[in-house]
Amino acid sequence: MEILTQQTEELIEEVLYLQKSSLLRLRNSTATERILKLKSIETYMFDHKQELFDALYADFKKPSSEVILAEMLGVKREIAHAKSNLASWMKPQKVGTPLLLLGTQGHVLFEPKGMCLIIAPWNYPFNLAINPLIHAISAGNAVILKPSELSPNTSAYIKKMITHLFDKSEVAVFEGDASVSTYLLDQRFDHIFFTGSPAIGKIVMRAASKYLTSVTLELGGKSPAIVGPEVDLMSSVQKMAWGKFLNNGQTCIAPDYVFVHEKVAFSFMEAMETTVQAFYNKENKGISASDDYARIVNERHFERIISLLEDAKFKGAKIVFGGDYNENDCFISPTLLSHCTPDMRIMQEEIFGPILPMMTYTSESEIIDYLKEEEKPLALYVFSTDDVFTEYILNNTSSGTSAVNDCLIQFGHTELPFGGVNHSGIGKSGGKYGFTEFSNQKSVLKQRTNLLKNFYPPYTFKSKWLIEQVLRWF
Ligand code: NAD
Fold it and tell me: What is the tens place of the pLDDT at every residue in 79-88?
């Protein structure tokens, strides 16, 4: 961890002071003003597209097509969705009146939380920094954003973009490692939105408790994919291979491991190998030569994943295909492992790399029994053409998100809440859910009569009778 300079500390304090002074102005900003700010992000992103491609390639060889699909498209969609809906989200929401409070009128006001801190990870370093920023701006907040030090080129791009578009009294970026987050987390914020690992999520939550600051924790974990006995195998395998090996497996909602029904296990292994070859080795030059295959972000993560692989092999896992790696390039080939067992570290820790461990089953109750002992995952995927099987799995498991016969794409659905449950996260984001997360839902009750005065003391014979009737009638 770096040592924070006094200059950075002073800069952070200056920004906090300036942002505090701009809260009232931001709070009273209109939907049109907020949308203009969102549009400026979109315009900058398109005008500086090549710079973004270069930054993400320099960080971990992310192919430009994956930058478009998994970084830019999500940002564009969130902005478009906010543009169409923000005015209605911001409107006070009228509610019905319970009979007991007849004569009153209630509504919910969405007021900005105020000073917000966003801490972002490195794996989708642009999207996962900017999407929460879109929600925070939509809700009328001031923001300090801390991108990840492990994707320094994208972090520098974000810093340049934000400095160009925003006054630091509204949005400011502080780059750096845990020393910067630690200092920021010691300050008073009204909301903290953290995306990263469960281990650091716990540190964030502990720090937030100092001022009882609300938190959104978008965390990770082991997301299972379940392949049923009745399944459209080729299509399912293609979707799973895409979801697993995109971004080199460094996706929080990638299928971490797979349960495959005994009946289709052999065909599954064959189809997965064929698909991987078709995706990344069509010209037979080797997968490491493919421009479409990213790399592990750094040596530390490379070593971590290889140690999971070696532990699994040592404990009896078999390599169906893959298993090749090259330390000099942080390259690990797409790998499928069979004969995996729960005692292997690869079945206990989030893999966050291009290795797919497989376990087989004969009865769906085995899956339920296994999952009820595990932390609740961020995502759970079911691949099946049998609705009874699918409903059985969905109704007997808990996860933050789920998808049937696909994976990953639930993240892009602006009408669905995105987030984990317990160990995989707290709070939701995406579309209106993101706006709400950065808003305080203030209840307002307006009294227009004084019907309740009959219940005020002194409690006479008559009022006591009335009060007793209240219990009977309402
Ligand atoms: P991380 O937890 O190591 O780091 C995330 C952020 O926290 C970075 O900005 C980092 O600088 C900061 N940080 C690191 N140490 C800190 C400390 N001691 N105190 C305060 N802040 C600290 O996570 P990562 O490696 O960047 O990302 C990978 C993890 O994030 C995986 O677990 C993945 O599943 C999860 N993730 C979740 C989502 C989601 O939407 N739920 C999305 C992407 C990644």
Answer: 999 999 999 9
